Amino acid sequence: MPKATMENDAFSRLSAVIADAANRNRNEAETRHKIIDFILHDLLAWPRNRVAVEENIHPGFADYILKKTNGEPLVFVEAKKEGLYFELPLPHNADETSSYISIKKLLTDSNIKAAANQVRTYCGDTGCEYACITNGHEWIFFKTFEKNVRWDSLNALVIRRLEFFEREYTRAVNSLSFLAITERSALPGILSSMPPRDRSLFYPKE
């Protein structure tokens, strides 16, 4: 099936994926299979040969590693079961599906802190700059270090719920897809030290 057709088919299936996930009662393996794999591989078009799973990285096993052409890690993704909630600061309005939140504030939630520290260990061991933690519903993307800047003073890109990928599909693809990250270098733009304050996300530079 042509790539464009596959992406269109994934978007058409997204509503069903969101509806099926409403109860948030899957274990980690089911969360990965039913939600996270769908978002990464089907919706955001990350090829499976560019994503390593359960790779041994001291001191444990990394759930997902999105990789560069040369095999070096580009983004570590730490997956949790969907029932493990990430408690986020309240949104500015009821329709907000994404926002920038300081890492320091996010770390006041124990589940976020534990997952973020775990994935940062993998990044530190490999020199990887970018990470994501997710329970399938909430997705938090962040830089793991920046020269001359305290890590917890950086802002993370927070996707508050799965509906983001449906309501803001173009922004999701333009910021987080395989093409956006590998060919258009989207991550330095969306995770810069000074993200724009007047909108939730912005397009990477062409």
Describe this structure in words.
By secondary structure, the protein is an alpha+beta fold. It is built from eight helices and seven strands, in the order ααββββααβββαααα. The protein has helices at 3-20, 28-43, 103-106, 110-126, 163-167, 169-176, 178-183, 186-190, and strands at residues 51-57, 60-67, 73-79, 98-102, 130-134, 139-143, 155-159. The protein has a seven-stranded mixed beta sheet, with helices on both faces. Strand 2 and strand 3 form a beta hairpin. Helix 1 packs antiparallel against helix 2 (28-43). The longest helix is centred in the first third of the chain and has 18 residues, at 3-20. The chain is globular. The two termini are 27 Å apart.
Brief digest:
This protein has 206 residues and is α+β, with helices and mostly antiparallel strands. 38% of the residues lie in helices and 20% in strands. α1 (3-20) packs antiparallel against α2.
Provide the low-confidence segments as ranges.
198-206
The separation of the N and C termini measures 27 Å
Structural class: alpha+beta
Q: How many E strands?
A: 7
Instruction: Give the CA-based shape.
Output: globular
**Count of helical regions:** 8
Order of helices and strands: HHEEEEHHEEEHHHH
CA gyration radius, whole angstroms = 16 Å
Residues in helices, as a percent range: 25-40%
User: Average pLDDT, to the nearest integer?
Assistant: 91
Arrangement of strands in the largest sheet = 1-2-3-5-6-7-4
Q: How large is the share of residues in beta strands?
A: 15-25%
Question: Biggest β-sheet, characterized?
Answer: 7 strands, mixed
